[in-house]
């Protein structure tokens, strides 16, 4: 009989384990950044290091990893229902009887010890579907991690582009200050020689002061972006700040060549895949609630010994065991099962709607990003040609002004246009790079 009980318990354990191992455990390393690191296309080593730091240190990303671990623990906990539960118990009761004649001291040392087993047999898939739901939530948490990582890399890249943009605008302002100061000195010399008027000197000095007044705002914007990058990378150190404050040109991105919106690229987006996983989880949860309509089968067993004498405790005649198969079928529950099934179905419908809305939003974001990027390339070419012509205009105006063939107003207008369009051209370069980042972000 002991052999039969042992074989029965062993079969229960192996049966539950085989069901639990139908779904392999995914390694957490699979959630790390993918090999197609789009930020490397910019060819900027500083940007690459910043994103590497953010992936390693950012606290939001670390919380996303913790969410994966939490979802995995819930999945494992749900899988535990495949296994039978064992419990051991022991009891010792000293007892004295005044009527006892068999024991010299009229004392009895009653002891009991045994093992109990309880196991729900998953006939209609209630446990299996519950485990599947938790598995899909676990996979969805991995997609949420990837989505957080994509958003983080995009935020770092965009903050870095803005930083370099403000630094380039500072360089534009300082270069224009030098040329404007040179013209101011020329006008002051002409005024001293009686060759020009106070109006000309006042105009040139006013333009110089206006340009100088833009420097504090640009410097504040530079410091703001440096602080943003420090927070995103999780490293608020002086060494990082000093390294970022060093002026570097805007990175150069390779043009994106793409026509249409391939469905495969849209489905790579982590938010789309997370919504799909969540929808599958809700479908499994709805199936688990439908299984509550059917009966549940249980198997309980116990094995142990009990006797009042220690020396005879483990004798065969003191052994007790039992096997009790049972069935439980809820006939009436005050519509609790029906309402639970209805709630699960409503949640599934919401999940389907969320998935469809996420897919439509993804299509819109990709289409908008590609359109804006393509138009920004056209704008960049137009601004570059306009800047070339305006610089030529300033050269011609300066040459004529030095020869006394034109008034200072033409030079003043040309200086203002050069300063304006140099900033416009820097902004066009920045916008092209930012739209490129949005394209990569939209494609996930």
| Count of beta strands | 4
Topology as a string of helices (H) and strands (E): HHHEEHHHHHEEHH
- What percent of the residues sit in helical stretches (DSSP H or I)? 55-70%
Count of helix runs: 10
Radius of gyration: 38 Å
- Strand arrangement in the largest pleated sheet: 1-2-3-4
Please outline the major beta sheet. 4 strands, antiparallel
Q: So what's the overall shape?
A: elongated
Low-confidence stretches: 1-35
Distance between the termini: 61 Å
Name the average pLDDT.
Answer: 81
Strand proportion, as a percent range, falls in 5-15%
Structural class: alpha+beta
Overview of the structural elements:
The chain has a four-stranded antiparallel sheet, with no helix packed on it. The protein has helices spanning 2-20, 45-57, 59-79, 126-192, 198-233, 238-245, 263-266, 270-290, 336-402, 408-442; strands at 85-96, 107-121, 296-307, 319-328. The protein has ten helices and four strands, in the order αααββαααααββαα. Helix 2 (45-57) crosses helix 4 (126-192), helix 5 crosses helix 6 and helix 8 (270-290) packs antiparallel against helix 9 (336-402). By secondary structure, the protein is an alpha+beta fold.
């Amino acid at each position: 009989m002991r052999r039969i009980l042992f074989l029965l318990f062993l079969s229960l354990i192996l049966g539950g384990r085989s069901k639990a191992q139908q779904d392999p455990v995914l390694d957490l390393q699979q959630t790390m950044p993918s090999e197609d690191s789009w930020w490397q296309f910019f060819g900027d080593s500083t940007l690459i290091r910043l994103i590497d730091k953010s992936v390693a240190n950012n606290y939001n990303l670390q919380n996303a990893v913790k969410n994966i671990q939490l979802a995995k623990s819930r999945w494992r906990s749900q899988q535990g229902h495949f296994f039978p539960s064992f419990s051991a118990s022991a009891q010792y009761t000293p007892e004295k009887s005044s009527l006892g004649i068999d024991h010299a001291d009229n004392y009895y040392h009653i002891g009991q010890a045994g093992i109990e087993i309880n196991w729900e047999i998953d006939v209609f898939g209630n446990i299996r579907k519950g485990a599947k739901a938790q598995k899909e939530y676990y996979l969805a948490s991995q997609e949420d991690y990837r989505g957080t990582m994509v958003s983080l890399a995009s935020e770092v890249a965009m903050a870095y582009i803005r930083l370099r943009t403000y630094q380039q605008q500072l360089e534009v302002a300082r270069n224009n200050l030098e040329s404007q100061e040179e013209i101011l000195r020329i006008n002051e010399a002409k005024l001293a020689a009686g060759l020009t008027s106070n109006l000309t000197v006042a105009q040139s000095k006013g333009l110089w002061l206006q340009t100088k007044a833009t420097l504090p705002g640009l410097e504040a914007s530079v410091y703001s972006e440096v602080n943003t990058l420090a927070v995103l990378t999780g490293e608020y150190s002086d060494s990082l700040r000093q390294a970022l404050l060093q002026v570097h040109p805007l990175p150069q991105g390779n043009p994106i060549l793409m026509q249409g919106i391939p469905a495969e690229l849209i489905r790579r987006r982590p938010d789309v895949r997370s919504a799909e996983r969540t929808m599958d989880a809700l479908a499994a949860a709805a199936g688990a609630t439908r299984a509550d309509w059917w009966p549940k089968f249980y198997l309980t067993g116990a094995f142990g010994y009990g006797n009042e004498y220690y020396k005879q405790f483990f004798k065969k005649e003191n052994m007790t065991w039992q096997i009790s198969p049972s069935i439980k079928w809820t006939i009436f529950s005050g519509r609790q099962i029906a309402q639970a099934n209805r709630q699960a179905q409503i949640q599934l419908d919401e999940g389907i709607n969320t998935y469809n809305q996420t897919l439509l939003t993804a299509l819109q974001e990709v289409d908008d990003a590609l359109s804006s990027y393509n138009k920004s390339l056209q704008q960049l070419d137009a601004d570059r040609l306009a800047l070339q012509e305006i610089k030529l205009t300033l050269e011609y105006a300066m040459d004529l002004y030095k020869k006394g063939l034109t008034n200072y107003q033409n030079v003043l207008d040309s200086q203002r246009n050069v300063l304006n369009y140099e900033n416009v051209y820097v902004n066009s370069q920045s916008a092209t790079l930012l739209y490129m980042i949005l394209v990569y972000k939209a494609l996930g």
